[in-house]
Amino acid sequence: MVDLRLFFVEGLGIKDAKSSRAEIEFLEEQIVSHEGDIEPTASVLNGFVAIARYCRFLLYGFEENEVELQIGNQKKLRKGLISQEIAETFITVPKDFCCPISLDLMRDPVIISTGQTYDRILISRWMEEGHCTCPKTGQMLMNTRLVPNRALRNLIVQWCAAHGIPYDPPENTDSSVEAFAAAMPSKAAIEANRATATLLIHKLASGSQRAQTVAARGIRLLAKTGRENRAFIAEAGAIPHLRNLLSSTNSVAQENSVTAILNLSIHDKNKSQIMDEKGCLGSIVGVLRFGLTTEARENAAATLFSLSAVHDYKKRIADEEGAVEALAGLLRAGTPRGKKDAVTALFNLSTHTENCLSMMEAGAVTALVGALGNEGVAEEAAGALALIVRQPIGAEAVGGEEMAVAGLIGMMRCGTPRGKENAVAALLELCRSGGTAATEKVLKAPALWGLLQSLLFTGTKRARRKAASLARVFQRRENYPLHFGGLGAGYAFAGNSAPSRDSSFVNEVSVPVSISVPVL
């Protein structure tokens, strides 16, 4: 211990917690500057960071100025000093990297008999539930073989490394894919991080309030990267202690604890630990509703988004008192990043059919309609509305919103290609489920016909399909004949043809999917 302190003080010039922290930040900046490199640069630097972080707490303890620094340097931390920190907005994942079922980044892409690619865990669940068709195309499956799409998986790993995005490969991933992962931790780094986690959790459990605050921040930073870090932090018992700090009257402690839970939730196995911890979900929602800082409230929303990636948790989250109402409030009045956190969480919750009523009662429908005019969140808002209006009570609620149809029409006119897809899908479902009154309201919308014709010529494949279905709905109404000339056989609207609902409608709602959560 004496020799170690001597080496740090005299050999490296690291005399206290402040200079130790500066050294760690410098090393992390070097990792950012070498983000495209594989071995050995990033791996060695990560090892140095792990050892320096451990020695920082071992040698210099939990000093008061560490807490004070959190407030002064909060903006600096959010701006991306550390390699995998994502600040003001999410990064849009390339569409081909997203599973058509969950719309999330695929961890283990596999090809089924129809030639479509899905994430292994999701398509396996689809088949186990007795489905024998392709979720995306509706084709019958010739067999249930799942062929690993190694080429796509390698591209995903490389893209994640280039953008500083955490990638947790499945446990049975072959070694050739693992070799592509940037900055794989060395054994020394893993052991140093384990030792650091042990120190931090001990302070969380028995330290003073100041020490607990510093420890929560340490866990937040340690959980930013690496499946190994997130796994052993949770296994070592951090979650109950972090949950206790969520109700702290110290804004720094609360903010760091909820962000630490957010970062831990990225690891799939930790989601169940968080949800199973008594009172933890309620405490997260409490921070969302009454958090002492804007960032704490936003990160609570992002945590709900992360947890709601598990289908079984969507209903539990929506049923938690005040959760949906608080998300709707954040969508209405939050910062740009807060709105993004809220709308993606609401979208996830809307994919569970039993959440429709609770979302209506909590004001989520009104908030989603209002978000149609916000370029940053309009696509997700339209996607959520397209799911809600599939149910008659949802269609009635959306149809009753004065600006709903106008907002969706506006997206068809000026939105992104994906926004246009979601807008026309929402209008189509509104007509199918909302009855005569809703259909009349959509039918009378100004410029609808021209916008439909434009989508039929220039829209994406999905947008064209939805536009054609909406045109058929209106053609069957005797007083509203359509006159789309020269569209070819692909868009012949047979008056007797009945549009069918897609069994996999969720896959037809296109959202610019972000990484599961921002790592902060």
From TrEMBL:
Keywords: Repeat, Transferase, Ubl conjugation pathway. This is RING-type E3 ubiquitin transferase. GO terms for molecular function: ubiquitin protein ligase activity. It catalyses: S-ubiquitinyl-[E2 ubiquitin-conjugating enzyme]-L-cysteine + [acceptor protein]-L-lysine = [E2 ubiquitin-conjugating enzyme]-L-cysteine + N(6)-ubiquitinyl-[acceptor protein]-L-lysine. GO terms for biological process: protein ubiquitination. Pathway: Protein modification; protein ubiquitination. ARM repeats lie at residues 237-279, 322-364. It comes from Populus alba x Populus x berolinensis. Coiled coil: none annotated. It is an enzyme of class 2 (transferase). Its EC number is 2.3.2.27.
